[in-house]
Specification:
The longest helix has 18 residues, at 26-43. This protein has a domain at 9-43. The protein contains three helices and no strands. By secondary structure, the chain is mostly helical. The protein has helices at 9-22, 26-43, 66-73.
Length: 76
């Protein structure tokens, strides 16, 4: 089926750039987005990220090394 939609110029320009980077036609990207809306969005639950609460005896001051930050934010 053929249809016509109005896409803002900036959005279409970005769409063409994305298609060129992927080496596919704009049509393919549009169809992929439509398919995702119809099927994929319902199947993918949103995962909320919960950051760790780090208590400090001196509020507004906390000194952590990169290794300690990695340990605190590591996903199980």
């Amino acid at each position: 089926m053929r249809t016509t939609i109005d896409i803002p110029d900036d959005t279409y320009r970005n769409l063409k750039i994305k298609a060129a980077h992927e080496g596919v036609p704009v049509r393919q990207i549009v169809l992929r987005g439509i398919q995702w809306e119809l099927e994929g969005a319902k199947q993918r639950p949103v995962r909320k990220l919960q950051l760790p609460l780090i208590r400090s005896s001196r509020p507004d001051t906390l000194e952590l090394t990169n290794e300690q930050v990695d340990e605190l934010t590591a996903f199980s």
